[in-house]
Amino acid sequence: MLFSELNLEDTLLEAIGYMGFEKATPIQSQAIPIISSGKDLIACAQTGTGKTGAFLIPVLNELVKKPSDDIKALIVVPTRELATQIDQQIDGLSYGCGISSMALYGGGDGDDWSKQKKAIKQGVNILVATPGKLISHLNMGYVNFDNLDYLIMDEADRMLDIGFWDDILKIVSFLPKERQNLMFSATMPQKIRELSKRILNNPEQISLAISKPAEGVLQASYLCYNEQKTPLIVDLINGKDEYKSIIVFSSTKKAVSEIVRALRKKNIQAKGISSDLDQTEREAVLLDFRNKKTRVLVATDVISRGIDIKDINLVINYNVPSDAEDYVHRIGRTARADTTGVAITLINPDDMYAFSKIEELIEKEVIKLSPPESMGDAPEWKVKSKSSGKKKGGKRWNNKKKGHFKKKKS
Q: Any idea what DSSP says for residue 327?
């Protein structure tokens, strides 16, 4: 469906055109008419499907039709990275429409707080906020939600994973009863359904491509021991010039530092990002990566969702995500918008059970390779039950497969 078929205002259509968008994605073509009709909505869609545009475009369209100086929409998100990304997308989609927005998140200094407070008191149309920072402003008494029309919760499942249930309910207590509620989530666990019953009013439901990687992602894995992981990452990247933008995900800050040092020794442009960096430093690292000044971004799970960087060619999981859903979000950084990409996961013996659960979830058996012989012997694929410790199945891959995973030509 074309955006021109969605009854949008001409000024907004023009701004969307400037962004290079012409055709709506499936989530957008389904969600925009529902939101425009004024109904509450709960939508399940994976990363990279265009869900941000799905809720921003109809909200912006109403603001174009009915200009206001009040806060009309509140978007609550789990991380500062996602808040920044959505705020930037608002700027792009509303170019020339006279709509203002502000991102509220922690990690800044006193000047940031003063700027946020001033913008809120003077009037801003859309607030994009992390729960903790928003509550800090609400407790000061100057946030006026009397004329709010929209409450939007993005990545609601991640917010509950982090532990924001009580914070979300507290925020809702400050909002007018009459409002439209939109909830977007990559997964639909029971907690999300419970929260939707507390907040949403007879919502419409959309569910698209739940927990399945994009078709363009070429998946592979390496069976290896922990001490082989960093040398293997260096070997996979060094000399592979076809991979222009690479993200390596790790669950620990220690591994992030180790990988960055090893890559830099090979003169590979790499930077790490974790909670050790303050907000200004994190934004600078992300900006360098977006602008291709940094080839490899090594990150903890803090940005496994919510980062919108195009043309990522390769994603490497240093460890197997403990949550099978997180695997989809991590590798969802590549193959965005109908492109292709490669996702590689490094599996040690302790991670084999977790990876088998991932394969069950995505309904696909991922090819398993071994590191080069020069790195020593590799473990065999033996899945043990997490509870009993007994071997499960009996399937075993031939670990004589050597060499590197080649990028499939598109």
A: H
Summarised one tens digit per residue, pLDDT across range 131-151 is 999 999 999 999 999 999 999
Q: What is the pTM of this model?
A: 0.64
Average pLDDT rounded to a whole number, residues 124-131: 96
Q: Which residues pair with 218 in a beta bridge?
A: 342
Which tokens is 404 given? 């590197």
Mean pLDDT of the region 90-114: 85
Count of alpha carbons within 13 angstroms of residue 74, beta-carbon side? 26
Residues contacting residue 147 through CB under 8 Å, at least 6 positions apart:
68, 70, 71, 72, 176
Q: Which of 218, 211, 220 is nearest to 327 (CA)?
A: 211
pLDDT at 328: 77
- Tell me which fold the domain 3-208 belongs to: Rossmann fold (3.40.50)
What pLDDT score was predicted for residue 392? 40
Residues of the chain with CATH 3.40.50.300: 3-208, 217-375
Q: Return the pLDDT at 366.
A: 94
The pLDDT of residue 301 is above 80? no
What architecture (CATH level 2) is domain 217-375? 3-Layer(aba) Sandwich (3.40)
Q: How far is CA 230 from CA 179, 191, 251, 256, 262, in A?
A: 51, 37, 14, 10, 7
**How far from 247 is each of 32, 119, 120, 168, CA to CA, in Å?**
32, 35, 36, 31
DSSP calls for 38-98: T--EEEEE-TTS-HHHHHHHHHHHHHHHS--SS--EEEE-S-HHHHHHHHHHHHHHTTTTT
Statement: residue 388 has pLDDT above 60? no
Predicted pLDDT of residue 362: 84
- Taking alpha carbons only, the member of 12, 10, 102, 97 closest to residue 57 is 12
Under 8 Å between Cβ of 144 and 315? no
Q: Which two tokens stand for residue 46?
A: 């994976």
Helix axes 51-65, 26-36, angle to 10 degrees: 30
d(CA 398, CA 396): 7
CA distance 151 to 25: 22
**Average pLDDT for residues 55-66, to the nearest whole number?**
96
pLDDT at 70: 93
Give the three-state DSSP class for 149. Answer: coil
Q: Give the side-chain half-sphere CA count within 13 A for 398.
A: 3
